[in-house]
Design a protein that fits this description.
heterodimer, A: alpha+beta, five-stranded antiparallel beta sheet, 12 strands, about 35% helix, B: alpha/beta, seven-stranded mixed beta sheet, 7 helices, 7 strands
Chain lengths: ~270, ~230
Amino acid sequence: MSAPGRIAPAPPPTWRVAAASVRGASHERLSLPCQDAHQWALLPDSFLVAAVADGAGSALLAEIGAAVAVSATIEAARRRFTQLKLPNLKDDSAWHELLKELLSGAREAVEQEANSRALPARDLACTLSLVIATTDFAASIQVGDGAVLVATPQGEMTLVNRPVQGECLNETIFLTSPEALEHAQTGLWRGHLGHVAVFSDGLQMAALRMPAAEPHPGFFTPLFQFVGGQAEGPEAHEALANFLTSPRLRDRTDDDVTLLLAALLP
Amino acid sequence: MPIVSQNSSHLEATVEFADNPEPRCPCVLLLDTSWSMKGEPIDALNQGLQVFRDDVCKDALASRRVEVAVITFDTDITLVQDFVTADQFQAPILTAQGTTHMGSGILTALDMIQARKAQYKAAGVLYYRPWVFMITDGEPQGEAEDVVRTATQRIREDEEAKRVAFFAVGVENANMTRLSQIVFRSPVKLLGLNFVEMFVWLSRSAQAVTHSRTDEQVALPPPGWGTV
């Protein structure tokens, strides 16, 4: 209750997140673990930092690479947010630089992990998508396939990062590839932010209209309603995991699938 | 927990999927049907083709994504089967006759792949790196050396540009030295007439391709049916 004549400051908007990585049918058949990983953190000033990594099926310890890549990225972002002042949201080049710094940190973490196991880095090959988002701004960097999508509360959807792949579908660039930093794609977005989605390439054919990679609104609208609605915490993650392993989706893909959804609650 | 199942079944009922055509993995079987294949080798090859078809079709997703074409080379180059998805593929019964126009066969296979990719692009279909799988028991014979040289050059260019993965398998008295000069990857020598095991391996490899990605070359499990 505020005293008459005084207005209590509105609480800052908060994020609600639902996320799941599930093992694909082909990985089950081949007794491979789920090689996708995701992690996120909520930081001051309504900042969300989220990362998704997809381990290469052909790499020996892809699941370790993916796990190290996301945790190193989120930790580095957390440190960066608490120790240093963030760039001005209008300063494009400073944000591009910050994104590249986080990506190259993730790459070094994966290389170190490989070194400590006396393995070549390519045995831990994975893609990485990172997004940093707040009420009116999103910044993203990605190496390899997967995608980062933002939406306004009115449902206008934009891919700030789209799948990066060669001519053929099974060729992509990984975080551990020599040309990773040079080929990484950054994207900045400004507008009234309502929702964010980050997903691995296993969902690509169901969520995007190919080959143009246009977001399919019929896919995202119900999911955004779901994450902004009642479901919260472990129940929300489990409901999402159940959806990602549903027979209908499994008929479309037998790859590992990761989907991280976030809604900004006013 | 009732809330959980309600949520996820609600998602299953309301989330709509983008209506994309299935991505394709084109695979050309380029088969030597010259006279020396007569008898046991051609019978074993025919049996292997049947096994290949049956095995790919065990994997529902792969059977919709792997596209098979069959070209034979002897004195003639014959398109026995144009590209069809594996679930539509009927294994042909091949017969052996004539000499070994391998170079012309290679060029026909690479042309077909190029044309197929143009069709995919026009139709907005995504694709995996195409494969040519050549099986021979001999060496180029009865055609101009120029044609073989051009074919060798084309394989090298297409492999380097990652336009194709070209595999060669030598059977019985195949000239492996000559074969390794023509193809870019090391050819594999089939142990005996173990076509069945080879085609099961090919089918599994094609299935694996439609399920994963690689950054460098098509990653294949080591064959148990041949020697490099």
